[in-house]
Fold:
Amino acid sequence: MPLEGFLKLFFKNNIPSLNSYSDIYNLAFEYVSNNKNKRHLSKILKQAITLNIPITEEDISSLHFISVQLLRFKQFEDVKIICNRILDVEPRDCQTILLLLSIAFYEKDRIKIISYCNALLECDYQKYIKELQPTLMSGIPEIRNSVNYHRPCRWL
Structure:
């Protein structure tokens, strides 16, 4: 019995259980910003999958960040789950469709690629541009230059 207590102490889970998408975003952003343990970051991000609360429009930007981070870990199924939840709330969300399109390219699923490209043609890109506007108008060159409109397309 004392050995079991020692093992629990040794392998203690330092990841708090979070109750909102914004809490998950804030903790994940701190981990990314400070180059903390990637294994813990993955556990933090996966809480967004198991969180059973309705998504609001305010949660969508947090979920975009969470999805991009999960995409970096090649957790495609988790990203699809989050993206489909976002599309239930905001069916014409450009960033979400782009995330799904990038997974379709990775999986080489031509039917989904065509489907997501068609969905992009119908998406609300004006809203996406408005969201990017603070970045485009930033006085900090690194932030302003992080948006690259003339990136060559590698798929064609």
